[in-house]
Amino acid sequence: MPADLSDLMLLPIDRTGGEPLLRQVYGALRRAILSGALPPGGKLPPTRALAERLGVARNTVVVAYEQLLAEGFIEGRVGAGSFVSRDLPDGLEIPPPEPSRRVPSPPPSASPFGTLPFSTGRCALDERSLRIWRSLTLRHLQRPDPEMLGYGEPGGPAALREAIARYLQSARAVRCEPEQVVITAGAQQAIDLVLRVLLRPGDPVWLEDPCYPAVRAALEAARARVVPVPVDGQGMAVAAGVAAAPDARLAYVTPSSHYPLGVVLSMARRMELLAWARTAGAWVLEDDYDSEFRYAGRPLASLQGIDGGGRVTMWAPSARSCFPACGSATPSCRPSCWTPCSRCAA
Asked: Pro residues: which segments have biased composition (predicted)?
């Protein structure tokens, strides 16, 4: 079947540039053959017809055909015309055709960065905060530790893990040793890391409804079965989760400050959640989001700190207490999970 002339009309011919028309026609035909747009064995249109459709001299197309013939891209058959060669020159392969994809034009933006400035993760940086950060950075850069410039330990620098463990013990009543702390590049890596270690494809997982959208995306990527659990004035409705999926493998919860409602998980609900996890042999992934900020009342102890069965894995993001560019997250794992978590993080 001859190539459709309407398709060949799309050959890129630039009459304003300095490249000769002959080279443009030859190059466009060659690329069409290599991409599969002109398939092996396909018949090329007559030189006169193609020249008329492209608006070039017939001799331009004739010479382009002759060059392709000499290089083995096409073959001529007496009385039949020119065809794309079924045996292309050695080392040349035609990739499988890919479907075209049109990306819609983005809507008008009020931000020079291309998105509307309504991010929930932005923070106010005053000169005092920047001055402290600058001073600390310069102090360590003036006396760099050679180990800091290498690949480092899989779970993160030992000194940093020790400092974080001390902070979590004093500020959040977390029961962990430095060996149970794993440093990640941020919330997304921490979530992915824990899910890869704890979940199997098809495992049911309780997820707060509403929830942080990126968590749902991570669960779907892990091929988990998401079980939405409603959130009320006391946080995640544990009884609703038990009714929907009593055999869930994991429950994801933001007890310190639910995202996006800001509800704090009550102590009664915390104990109910931990009791279910112990009975079902399930895991609780505690996202300690926004625990640094208190506006009323005394802070409640972390789930990990009051868990007596070792069923809670907690991760503590630092983007709120520092700033997003320093958004490391720290999963605090039980000892049996530390090795696989650190290997995945490496």
From this structure: 94-110
